[in-house]
Design brief:
Structural class: alpha/beta
Radius of gyration: 30 Å
Order of helices and strands: HHEHEHEHHEHEHHHHEHEEHEEHEEH
Largest sheet: 5 strands, parallel
Helix content: 40-55%
Strand content: 15-25%
Shape: elongated
Number of strands: 12
Length: 324
């Protein structure tokens, strides 16, 4: 019977090799790294990333990370650049060219034009003595002790190191720019991150006839009908100017029944919760969620600056909006 291959051992060996590669990579966070970051920080136009094969796939991700964290950037395939796409690159841009060997012929063919245009060239190579590194304004070294591939052929440790180096300067630039969560949200409007960072409570709150509210002199049974009809699991108790003075929730109803209160004769003002938690409708939805979780409540009343009720929502509204 053939010995079963130990996949776990092989996988752990790959991870250890790549961990060792990343540990060594920290040695290359040096003056060249600082210079490259400074050049990108001062760039008034675009950072253009290029690479062939696996380096191209990594370059695509680096460009996307830069673009989403405040550094205008895009990827250009070197092969396509030789057939017209080089027109996307103009004076004032910065080119980041990636090649582990530093000898990618498709990139080398473009360097005379890039240099003639006076475009700043940053290279990422595993060989600082390579042709690309020698002509670069700055070379970021990404040398690894070995590839995780036992044949030494498939790019593995080298691509991991390249990706990590890209993350290193993208995040360093993010911090140097003072890039905020709001800035990040503006470049991610369509996804869950955008919804969490851009959505306001006013965007999802119930208003007008959907608002559950009664006055303090309303009978408890009237308040219960309001809770039931509006479907938010609560009703606000307001004064004659529609300012919030209390709240009554499903949870309050359960406690009420335990106390054998007569819902037909007593008013809601006698049993309401005074001074409930309220929020401004201009608050970020994710901040409203945090408030509700901190207070351990399922519904939230929204008031303007005069404490007048303008909206209401519950956890289901936040869930439907994708905030949770």
């Amino acid at each position: 019977m053939a010995t079963q291959f130990d996949f776990c051992k092989a996988g752990k060996n790959v991870l250890q090799i790549e961990i060792d590669a990343l540990t060594q990579l920290s040695n290359y966070i040096n003056d060249n790294f600082t210079k490259a970051c400074q050049l990108m920080l001062e760039c008034k136009q675009k950072v253009v990333v290029m690479g062939m094969g696996k380096s191209g796939h990594i370059g695509n991700k680096i460009a996307a990370t830069l673009a989403s964290t405040g550094t205008p950037s895009f990827f250009v395939h070197p092969g396509e650049a030789s057939h017209g796409d080089l027109g996307m690159i103009e004076k004032g841009d910065i080119v980041i060219a990636i090649s582990n060997s530093g000898e990618a012929s498709e990139i080398l063919a473009l360097l005379p034009v890039i240099k003639r245009l006076g475009i700043t060239l940053i290279t990422m190579t595993g060989k600082p003595e390579s042709s690309m590194a020698k002509v670069a304004d700055v070379n970021l070294q990404i040398t690894v002790p070995q590839e995780a591939c036992p044949l030494g052929l498939a790019p593995t440790s080298s691509t991991t190191a390249t990706l990590a180096m890209g993350d290193a300067f993208a995040v360093a630039l993010l911090q140097a720019r003072g890039f905020t969560a709001d800035d990040f949200a503006l470049s991610h409007p369509g996804g869950a991150l955008g919804r969490k960072l851009l959505l306001l409570l006013s965007d999802i709150m119930h208003t007008g006839d959907e608002l559950p509210m009664v006055t303090a002199d309303a009978l408890i049974k009237t308040a219960l009908l309001e809770v039931s009809e509006k479907g938010l699991g609560m009703t606000a108790i307001v004064d004659n100017e529609q300012k919030v003075i209390g709240i009554f929730t499903d949870g309050d109803l359960r406690r009420l029944l335990d106390n054998k209160i007569d819902i037909h004769t007593q008013t809601i003002g006698e049993v309401m919760t005074h001074s409930p938690a309220v929020a401004n409708p201009n608050l970020l939805a994710v901040e409203g969620l945090n408030l509700m979780q901190d207070k351990k409540i399922n519904g939230l009343l929204l008031c303007d600056e005069t404490h007048r009720l303008v909206g209401a929502l519950n956890m289901h509204d936040l869930l439907k909006a994708g905030v949770m």
